[in-house]
Automatic annotation (TrEMBL):
Annotated source species: [Candida] anglica
The protein's name: DUF1748-domain-containing protein
A Pfam family annotated for this UniProt entry: Mitofissin
InterPro entries cross-referenced by the UniProt entry: Mitofissin (IPR013726)
Domain of life: Eukaryota
Length: 103
């Protein structure tokens, strides 16, 4: 029973570190360790956050390899959508109706 609890808490700690790494990557917010008085605890917590960053990177690379996920660029998708609407207004044709040229 003790090993099961230890494994459960360890898995939870890894998930929390991955979530903190995702918050850091997507928003730029970083956990401020200057509030901790112990230098050793700051160092340990910094290593914990670095571990979360590494696990986040490995998780993202694994998800990219599966083929079930694709990366989208929201800005490019929006501009492409607006350009398609504008083209439809001006010419009455969809973008797919134009012949594609190899570059």
């Amino acid at each position: 029973m003790a090993f099961g609890k230890l494994a459960h808490y360890s898995f939870d700690l890894v998930l929390i570190s991955i979530i903190l790494a995702g918050i850091h990557r997507n928003t730029g917010l970083v956990f401020d360790t200057s509030h901790f008085s112990s230098v050793d605890f700051r160092r340990w917590f910094g290593n914990y956050l670095a571990f979360g960053e590494k696990m986040y990177d490995q998780t993202v690379s694994l998800l990219k390899l599966t083929g079930y996920f694709k990366q989208r660029n929201l800005v490019l998708d929006y501009v492409s959508n607006q350009a398609g609407k504008y083209l439809k207004e001006q010419t009455g044709r969809d973008l797919n109706e134009f012949p594609k040229k190899d570059l």
